[in-house]
Amino acid sequence: MLHAFERVLDQLAHDPAFAQVELVGHSAQVRRGGARLVVTIDRIGGVDVALCERIAAHVNGQLAELDQSYSLEVESAGLERSLVRPEDYQRFAGKAARVVTTLAIEGAKTHRGTLVGVRGTNVVLAVAGGELLLPIATIKHANVEYDPRADLVRDKRERREHA
User: Is the pTM above the cut of 0.90?
Assistant: First the structure.
């Protein structure tokens, strides 16, 4: 089951029908009575329910021949999506981020700031004191931090401009 799931996701990543979809992550847990399969996706412009349904239908269609029960969840990476590849740090440059490292860097393991991007083997985070270089090899977890106030400020500014 798990091997088939991995194969289907690999095919999905190369399917022209899903060219704009990014597979952010996936997991598979074998449980009594079947497996729990989770696929996390993202797309520039956002993910909607219809896209999740299309991907679920595709995966289910590919796994239909298996004689094992499973549950499948296809979910959006969300507003505070995980940053897992070096390209993610480049794509979300300019966004607020939280980065947790395995080693203390400048006295802390949790770092918050604005993503600058990647420089060599380091993620660059703009913080109050300047730039903080975080070696990619030490990053345990990182994610974009969504600030709803920024959306409210932007909406207010747009309403003023159109009034």
Answer: no
